[in-house]
Amino acid sequence: MMTKLLQFHFMRNSCILLLFTLLLNQLVSAQSAEVLTIRKHGAKNADVVMKEFTEFLSLPNVAADPAGLQKNVAFIMAMMNKRGIQKVQLLHASTNGVPPVIYGEVMVPGAKQTLIFYAHYDGQPVNPEQWAKELSPFEPKMFSKAIDKAGAPIASPADGIYNSEWRIYARGASDDKAGVAAILNAYDAIKKTGLTPGCNLKFFFEGEEEMGSPHLNEILEKYKSLLQSDLWIICDGPVHQSGKKQIAFGVRGDTHLDLTVYASKRPLHSGHYGNWAPNPALRLVKLLASMKDETGRVTIKGFYDDVTPLTAFEKKSLNEVPSVDEQMKNELGIFAEEMKGTTLSEAINLPSLNINGILSGNVGKMASNQIPTQATTVLDLRLVLGNDWQRQQQKVIVHIKSQGFFVTGNEPTDAERAKYEKIIKVIPGEDGVNAQRTSMDLPIVQKVIAAVKTTTNEQVVLQPTMGGTLPLFVFEKYLNAKTVTVPIANHDNNQHAENENIRLGNLFTGIETMASLMLIK
Amino acid sequence: MMTKLLQFHFMRNSCILLLFTLLLNQLVSAQSAEVLTIRKHGAKNADVVMKEFTEFLSLPNVAADPAGLQKNVAFIMAMMNKRGIQKVQLLHASTNGVPPVIYGEVMVPGAKQTLIFYAHYDGQPVNPEQWAKELSPFEPKMFSKAIDKAGAPIASPADGIYNSEWRIYARGASDDKAGVAAILNAYDAIKKTGLTPGCNLKFFFEGEEEMGSPHLNEILEKYKSLLQSDLWIICDGPVHQSGKKQIAFGVRGDTHLDLTVYASKRPLHSGHYGNWAPNPALRLVKLLASMKDETGRVTIKGFYDDVTPLTAFEKKSLNEVPSVDEQMKNELGIFAEEMKGTTLSEAINLPSLNINGILSGNVGKMASNQIPTQATTVLDLRLVLGNDWQRQQQKVIVHIKSQGFFVTGNEPTDAERAKYEKIIKVIPGEDGVNAQRTSMDLPIVQKVIAAVKTTTNEQVVLQPTMGGTLPLFVFEKYLNAKTVTVPIANHDNNQHAENENIRLGNLFTGIETMASLMLIK
Predict the structure, then answer these.
(1) A254 contact residues in B (CB cutoff 8 A)
(2) Spatial separation of the C-alpha atoms in residues B7 and A518, rounded to whole Å
(3) Does this model's pTM top 0.90?
(4) Which residue from A358, A362, A372 is facing B360, i.e. has the nearest CB?
(5) Tell me: the pLDDT tens digits for B175-204?
């Protein structure tokens, strides 16, 4: 949600009104003078920010396109050099071809603390056919509002005045090129407005986050001394669904299982063999149906057993999180939550099992009367504090076996087909990430909370756990470092799916948020 | 399965061996002199037949490509004209753009009976990505045997000698361009060997069979007098899995339901919403899982109630059908049949419910951590005598409602989303086809059985019901005509799926089968 000032400005107000509102804000709000200075600069320079950001979004950033990722790396390095950031360099894993981390730093004379700002430049895979017909993942386009709410295309404004409700659509727009852009533009604004950072700043932009950060541990270990800091600021994920800013002190963990159920070795005509030859899709749906009961709870033995309960303080913060359940149900067109009586905030603090995708045969115009040879699904397991990702995978595998399946890691052999009625290939994801939580009581964390509060008149929501998974436990493991997540994207950004977008108001207030942190003394 | 003669010939025997075998066959077998003449001609002219057939297969024949279907029409008319078939013409439906039927006839002086030969030139939809990498649906390629049994590519033989085990891969290779080719080459062989058909011949090649023949009824009614006959010979589908020839006196009926379950209006991040937002794939798998019990029987109320039991004579024929259950389980890599203790022959005489396809989100490399917005499935319902396709659809819909779903024919509105927890769009197929059965006791049907027996030393399998669905009931309804199905394709032809193929031995013995019928007096 935009502050009033920015809304007014975007509504083509006059300079007089702008100044008046600036003064008014200073008188009545918790917002600091520095933040208002940054805001004014942001409004004036919106065109420059947007031009650079649009160019950034036009660079493909998926793992399947290493050349595209390289272009992102070069672009970000140029952004950093242009801003006079020092020691701009690439941090490489030992394996060739791994997208590097981009590092840089700003040492402030007399500063006693160091904050390191994290964002990632890689994006989730894209299936362009699933995007709205007027969109293409790497041809960023601006719309007057969300396209599913009748947003219309908008050209770059000749007067350089952008409306906070406008959105840019592209893969990475919110997850997480917005993070990179907010961090670097915050530093730029501090510098250009003559302010000085209150602490030393380090910048760390990762290129494998959407792959589960397989080389992050290695890089942290290798560059341990370079990466020393008092706190990592993770700029990724969405703000609260109410539009209020939020700080998250932990994240859900995540792991996957790929399952493939086999039936006949070749596809069969459903007329000649239907009823007699087993159908792999039926076998898979029976298996998946056995994993949750009618109340939406996972029925896999021990699924909830390892969970570390929330402390009293965490429960209190959770209770103060504004309820968005009814708003979200209405917005999403959902009649009821999956687990009756469990709020969204509560649900995020429980491990989950989600069907990311299921496929067997064809549907729609491609459908044909066949019994498919196999049926595949990808299960996503989100984890909370106490869960271990490999232990959680094993619980699912034990359940699959309890349903009468022979579990293999390969395509079944003829001998296996002759021996077992129900055969499933299970490929457990090797890139699991455990959940993590940082204490809200640390002095540096208290400063972060106070800083974000200087940017808004509204409540700053404090979340024990964010839904999104970031590899935060590795910072603790390899650097003994603490992390706090300060997200900026709008909650309805479609991250990880088609039609990803960022609301411009979120990008610009995100710059203010990052700047407030850089001013911490 | 090839007769010995053709096998020998294909094994590059000498002319002397060929003649000797011809004589031997005449002495010891039930095979008629006429059939042996046709066979000899077929072996000599294999190159001509194969060249024409390959060209035919290279013409795309899917409903989505009307121009491709037109090329097939022109090609078949040219085939018929070249063979001196009379009154070659197109039978059109009243609607523009409907693929026409191609008709032709041969009136034989003194003939007392008329047989009309049916095949279809359209094919099932193709998804080229699902085909083996060395194949393309409309670039016919020859292999030494089935490619899933390590068949190697084969060029056209310079000496014109083809092996019966070789296969041609292309959409329509077996279903049902092989039918068109067998019928027209049978007539060609009769003519070129100086034989005379024993009855009047009519030819009827349809172009909408894979669409469920939506205009067949109209065309039969419009051209009623032209299409008078004593019996329709339907050349479509596979021979018995044992390789023995077979005649089928009925077919399963068929109908469909397209189901789409809805959840959130936009895709959601499984970390931020997983556990709280309902997953449409989970809803769909629970629904589908409720449709069959652990013994493979459909649990939908009344699903088996309408079935007309087999007569004593039909049961006797069914008992004489060679059991292929163990062979097929072995060949298909299946441990057990879906309904324990029910043989393939028995299963085909029961209505079935098959999941043709299911899709939600993405799997494999395209998978992402999202809760999809919808989940779709296509259900195929096969029918037997007594079932009515619309009644059968209704049973499924009643079951879906009993599982707590609100059933709609459209995308759900916001009001519906706010009112109903479980929402499903059900699109019942409008092109259902009921099952059909012709009595084995009719004199003309007895002649057909006797004719096919003249082409082989082996048992001719008599099936009360074939698994494949053909719109046979419409012939009875609009023309008061009887039908008998005489298939020729190999059973492992992958019809309706990727990698469709025909075994050359089946094409050539198919020509003999069709010729034997044309010689009926």
Answers:
(1) 271, 369
(2) 85
(3) no
(4) A358
(5) 999 999 999 999 999 999 999 999 999 999
